[in-house]
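User: quick one, sequence for these tokens?
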């Protein structure tokens, strides 16, 4: 493009037709065309009079500025809107001006200012064909376009002098052309496109917009500072606990839930920043007592269970735990790998309109059901035993146990059969799976699920788990999902909130301690592949979890805790409210509904290293253990 502006290298102008065909129309030429069109429209009265009279006024200066403008522009002195497409005038009206422009071509080329525009003369009307009009259609203004103003950098001093000379000849257009200087159009508030170059006419509007934006930003900043100041002031305000008389009055006329919830939030705020927000006349216990009363009323727990659960968490996390217990856990199913694969099962259920997803990366057989047009427990796939409706948390103890093929495995509390059938699937129906449950009524569901899922290596029995070492022993692995308070499954059984008291926990912990000793004694430490015991509960209280495991370690020194193989979950407590447990209890795993989106659960895995138990100065082999049976066989031989 620089060669076209260099008069020494190019003596003749490039024809507009060739310029359009080769696509070399520059943006400068295009902007100049638009600028001249807008100016000519405002001078339409003078242009029409000049065309009609043929005054022959010499327009050397305008021609110098508009020499690169196509002939089509000079054929448009008729009325039009700035954004409307131009219509050509009759050829007879434009001839005088065209001839005059042709006569002055050489003079313009020689004396025209070097202002960045290509000062080529315009073509005559005879050279302007219909194809020229069509090829310029892409530059015509549509209804939604605005006139583009000439950039400031291209308004040279010479062109400004020529524009002033032309304005002196036409007094009627003085006011229109001199606004802003240099022949720039009057300011149009609608012609302020941010993508266009900054011009004189929109500079003022842009400045006003920037000033308004700065004022608005300053106002918003002041308001934000005021809000922060108010928030800081409110945080420093001391929350006043209700007096004893108010507490007694609330027992007779309780507050509504919204007021209680607000007070819970205020107390939690104070407890989280107790040093700065406390009432000097109140102790931390006063705040905790009021918090327990309010949360018991709001969530419906008895005071004993509320206090026991609050001891497990910080006050903020305790609220999350209680809120999670108010929401049902997702429905999950386990694929029965004895009959199908998870991919095939998922596709079959999707074809029935079931919305599902894998539970997570930690399991290869679990699916989460989000929505189903049919009951999940009534599909043909369910009836055929392709899956088991089972909570995700009950996968965990079986995964930790890891039964192998051709092993002898005991499930001491098997009903309704989810964990038993999972073990059989992992064993691929080999070995022997003993499914025991002390409740005969619950065994009906156990037997039904064993048949439906196609388990063929299971033996169902009805014994008290505490008798099992005497009834049968020598197992490679034992799974004990002990009876518990159910504090981890409150979302399924809300009655736990009120029907569990100190006597229930005392009875349950005693039973759990007896069962875990029986499970340890039933395992054969000499097993080539096993010798493992998994203890699990659907409770989150320390009394039923870490305390029971610590008791087993103290009573059976021939076992030790090992890794569960579960790569998520929180470590168990090694100390709790003044109680110190064995350091290996950090290998156990805790699961919470608010943290893992599954029922609260506890899992611990033991490895039996010897069949002999140290009793005083002697080592005794418990009755029913595999080692004692093996010794009897040797004596008979």
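Assistant:
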């Amino acid at each position: 493009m620089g060669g076209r502006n260099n008069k020494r290298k190019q003596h003749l102008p490039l024809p507009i037709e060739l310029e359009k065909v080769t696509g070399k129309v520059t943006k400068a030429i295009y902007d100049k065309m638009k600028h001249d069109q807008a100016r000519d429209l405002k001078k339409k009265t003078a242009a029409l009079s000049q065309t009609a009279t043929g005054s022959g006024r010499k327009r050397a200066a305008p021609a110098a500025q508009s020499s690169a403008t196509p002939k089509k522009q000079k054929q448009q002195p008729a009325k039009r809107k700035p954004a409307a497409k131009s219509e050509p005038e009759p050829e007879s009206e434009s001839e005088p001006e065209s001839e005059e422009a042709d006569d002055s071509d050489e003079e313009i080329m020689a004396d025209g200012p070097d202002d960045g525009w290509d000062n080529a003369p315009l073509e005559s009307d005879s050279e302007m064909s219909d194809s020229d009009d069509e090829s310029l259609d892409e530059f015509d203004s549509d209804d939604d376009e605005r006139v583009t103003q000439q950039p400031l950098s291209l308004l040279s001093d010479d062109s400004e002098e020529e524009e002033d000379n032309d304005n002196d000849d036409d007094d009627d257009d003085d006011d229109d052309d001199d606004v802003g200087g240099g022949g720039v159009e009057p300011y149009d508030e609608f012609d302020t496109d941010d993508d266009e170059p900054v011009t004189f006419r929109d500079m003022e509007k842009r400045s006003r917009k920037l000033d308004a934006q700065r004022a608005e930003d300053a106002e918003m900043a002041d308001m934000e500072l005021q809000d922060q100041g108010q928030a800081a002031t409110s945080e420093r305000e001391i929350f006043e606990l209700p007096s004893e008389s108010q507490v007694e009055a609330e027992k007779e006329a309780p507050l509504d839930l919204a007021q209680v919830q607000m007070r819970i939030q205020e107390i939690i705020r104070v407890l989280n920043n107790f040093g700065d927000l406390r009432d000097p006349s109140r102790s931390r216990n006063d705040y905790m007592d009021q918090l327990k009363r309010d949360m018991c009323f709001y969530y419906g727990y008895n005071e004993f269970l509320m206090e026991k659960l609050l001891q497990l968490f910080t006050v903020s996390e305790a609220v999350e735990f209680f809120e999670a217990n108010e929401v049902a856990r997702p429905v999950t199913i386990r694929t029965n790998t004895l009959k199908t694969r998870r991919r095939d099962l998922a596709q079959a259920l999707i074809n029935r309109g079931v919305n599902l997803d894998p539970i997570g990366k930690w399991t290869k057989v679990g699916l989460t059901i989000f929505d189903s047009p049919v009951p999940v427990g009534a599909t043909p796939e369910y009836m055929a035993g392709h899956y088991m409706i089972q909570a995700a948390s009950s996968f965990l103890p079986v995964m930790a146990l890891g039964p192998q093929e051709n092993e002898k495995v005991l499930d001491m509390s098997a009903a309704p059969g989810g964990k038993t059938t999972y073990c059989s699937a992992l064993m691929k129906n080999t070995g022997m799976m003993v499914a025991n449950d002390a409740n005969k009524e619950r065994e009906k569901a156990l037997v039904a699920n064993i048949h439906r899922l196609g388990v063929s290596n299971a033996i169902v029995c009805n014994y008290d788990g505490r008798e099992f070492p005497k009834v049968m022993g020598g197992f490679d692995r034992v799974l004990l999902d002990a009876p518990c308070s159910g504090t981890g499954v409150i979302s399924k059984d809300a009655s736990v909130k009120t029907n569990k008291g100190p006597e229930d926990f005392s009875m349950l912990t005693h039973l759990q301690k007896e069962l875990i000793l029986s499970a340890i004694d039933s395992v054969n430490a000499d097993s080539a592949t096993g010798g493992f015991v998994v203890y699990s509960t659907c409770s989150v209280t320390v009394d039923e979890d870490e305390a029971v495991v610590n008791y087993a370690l103290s009573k059976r020194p021939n076992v030790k805790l090992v890794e569960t193989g579960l790569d998520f979950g929180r470590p168990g407590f090694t100390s709790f409210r003044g109680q110190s447990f064995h350091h290996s209890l950090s290998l156990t795993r805790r699961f919470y509904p608010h943290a893992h989106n599954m029922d609260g659960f506890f899992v611990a895995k033991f490895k039996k290293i010897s069949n002999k138990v140290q009793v005083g100065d002697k080592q005794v082999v418990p009755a029913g253990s595999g080692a004692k049976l093996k010794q009897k066989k040797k004596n008979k031989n």
